[in-house]
Design a protein that fits this description.
alpha/beta; 2 helices
């Protein structure tokens, strides 16, 4: 039986969910700093900053982002206090393991 070439194989289309109409904020955490990036629903960067490791800096960054926002971050060994700080601003959270 002949094998189909890669070009001839029928590939499924990627299924994309439409992004919610809000600002997405990604937090990349480390022990000494947090890199925060905010993007609009089209993926255009609105704001990016390197923050210290304090909750106050995360809260200030999030409160400066206008409109509804969704915060995403990776669960790591220093995530708990940052998660609590983000939730205190009223931002919904998503985290990954």
């Amino acid at each position: 039986m002949a094998r189909k070439s890669h070009a001839a194989r029928r590939l499924s289309r990627p299924r994309r969910r439409p992004m919610e109409n809000c600002t997405y904020v990604g937090l990349d955490l480390s022990k000494t700093s947090t890199m925060a990036t905010a993007v609009d629903p089209q993926g255009h960067r609105i704001r990016q900053a390197r923050l210290g490791a304090t909750d106050e800096e995360v809260i200030r960054f999030l409160e400066e982002i206008p409109g509804p926002r969704l915060v995403v971050m990776e669960s790591c060994n220093v995530w708990e206090h940052t998660y609590d700080a983000a939730v205190s601003t009223g931002s919904p959270m998503r985290s990954s393991a």
